[in-house]
Amino acid sequence: MNQKLIIRLGGAAVAVFVLAYAASPLLAARSLVQAAKTGNEQALERQVDFPAFRASLKDELSARMVAEMRKDDRLGGLSGLGMLLAPTLVSGAVDAFVTPQAIAVMVQEGQGPKPDQAKPEAGPNPESKPESQKVRQSWGYRDLDTFAVTLTRDDQPDEQVSLLMKRRNLFGWKLAGIDLSAPE
Q1: Which class for 47: exposed (0-12), middle (13-18), buried (19 or more C-beta within 10 A)?
Q2: Could you say which of 16, 40, 63, 94 has the lowest number of CB atoms within 10 Å?
Q3: For the chain, which residues score pLDDT lower than 50?
Q4: How far from 23 is each of 8, 36, 62, 93, 176, CA to CA, in Å?
Q5: Where are the alpha helices (H) located in 98-176, listed in sequence order?
Q6: Cα-Cα-Cα-Cα dihedral of 141, 62, 42, 152, to 10°?
Q7: What is the pLDDT, as a whole number, of residue 81?
Q8: What is the pLDDT of residue 66?
């Protein structure tokens, strides 16, 4: 009888651990989105790894800027120079842009920053948002240590922003990256 009880308790403990392990990013992502929607700057500061997020955003914007320069025929031979300067230009803009307020605006509007945007505008009022600009959220694992909150606007379904939450310990998660690529 004691052996069966120990096995059942062990099984229950394993089930609770697996459930908590799998649900922890959902709770962290919900908390991040709620803090962004309410404009709670202290909560956002606790939930974002700013150095990692800035590095990820710099990479994404530099790649987007280089891709746009390659497509632009008007630049001619100057596109190579532009590609060399792009990371420097993006770096300064990102360092000025990434604040708790900017992350809140990103979540509320469902749009990432543009390569030439240096400062966030004032946050929108979610109650006054037209129906055509509603932001849809989808959530899912990218891998065991990366959880994505993907934001898509109804009026721009071909553009999406994926906020990447990274595991920081067994049950802890922080916003540490962004993916601005278009859906496939």
Answers
A1: buried
A2: 16
A3: 118-128, 183-184
A4: 22, 20, 34, 35, 18
A5: 100-109
A6: -50
A7: 59
A8: 73
Residue 139 tokens, joined? 């959530």
The whole-angstrom separation of Cα 181 and Cα 184 is 9
Kindly give, in sequence order, each residue whose CB lies less than 8 Å from that of residue 155, ignoring residues fewer than 6 positions away: 132, 133
Phi-psi region of 67 (alpha: psi -120 to 50; beta: other; left: phi over 0): alpha
Q: Confirm if 110 and 161 have CB atoms less than 8 A apart.
A: yes
pLDDT score of 122:
45
Q: What is the pLDDT of residue 27?
A: 94
Joined tokens for residue 97: 């842009």
Phi, psi at residue 167, to the nearest 5°?
Answer: -70, 130
